[in-house]
């Protein structure tokens, strides 16, 4: 134990152990009367007891460190709530902060003399007439309808809006609301053709799909302009 005990004397609280081997023992002035009997400090019961105490303290310190590491909370992954939906052949993502409701399809009533190509008409939403816009037209997407996988087609109407009011937008399919990692959204590629399109933050790969992330602030501004 002689090789370990002196180094362990630097541990907190080790000063309470009498390191007589460094003062009067084999590492000191060799004036200890026990040396006559034991020849070397390692054979002395005083030395063995001191070394055992130091090793016990060291082991306890290691155990406390492991417990502290295990009790640390796991890092929380920051996420953003996104609605994933389809228009034609494209999948898009819209932050749910701009989403008011997802509702079943409803009849669209056309308006006479409407000037905006994006304005489809109005829809009755619980007794109130709400403007209905074509996101396909607003975003400049391909208007050719796509055939979704059988049993998964869920055409719906999105009610979106901000301080300027609400509008209704029909979509071909709604996948649902998902929590996407913010670091993935921040790293969305902005160099592809889709990413260069209007009102788009970028494109991410998610569950085998290319998701076009909409810039909800710019989109809502475009919605407001289309109604004026």
TrEMBL record:
Tagged with keyword Cytoplasm: yes
Domain of life: Bacteria
Protein name per its UniProtKB record: Chemotaxis protein CheW
Localization in the cell: Cytoplasm
Keywords tagged on the record: Cytoplasm
Pfam families from the UniProt entry: CheW
Coiled coil, from the record: none
One GO CC term on file: cytosol
First and last residue of the signal peptide: none
Species of provenance: Pseudomonas cavernicola
Keyword Cytoplasm attributed: yes
Domain CheW-like residues, every copy: 79-225
GO biological process, one term: chemotaxis
């Amino acid at each position: 134990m002689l090789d370990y005990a002196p180094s362990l004397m630097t541990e907190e609280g080790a000063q309470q152990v009498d390191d007589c081997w460094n003062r009067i023992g084999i590492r000191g002035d060799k004036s200890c009367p026990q040396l006559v009997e034991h020849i070397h400090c390692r054979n002395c019961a005083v030395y063995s007891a001191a070394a055992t105490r130091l090793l016990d303290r060291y082991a306890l310190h290691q155990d406390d460190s492991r417990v502290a590491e295990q009790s640390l909370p796991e890092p929380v992954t920051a996420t953003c709530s996104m609605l994933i939906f389809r228009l034609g052949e494209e999948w898009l993502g819209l932050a749910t902060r701009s989403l008011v409701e997802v509702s079943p399809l409803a009849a669209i009533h056309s308006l006479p003399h409407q000037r905006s190509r994006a304005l489809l008409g109005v829809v009755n939403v619980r007794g109130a007439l709400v403007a209905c816009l074509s996101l396909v037209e607003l975003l400049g997407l391909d208007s050719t309808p796509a055939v979704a996988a059988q049993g998964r087609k869920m055409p719906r109407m999105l009610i979106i809006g901000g301080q300027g009011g609400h509008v209704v937008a029909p979509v071909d399919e709604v996948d649902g609301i998902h929590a996407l990692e913010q670091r993935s959204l921040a790293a969305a590629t902005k160099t592809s053709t889709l990413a260069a399109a209007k009102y788009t933050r970028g494109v991410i790969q998610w569950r085998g799909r290319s998701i076009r992330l909409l810039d909800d602030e710019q989109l809502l501004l475009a919605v407001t302009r289309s109604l004026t």
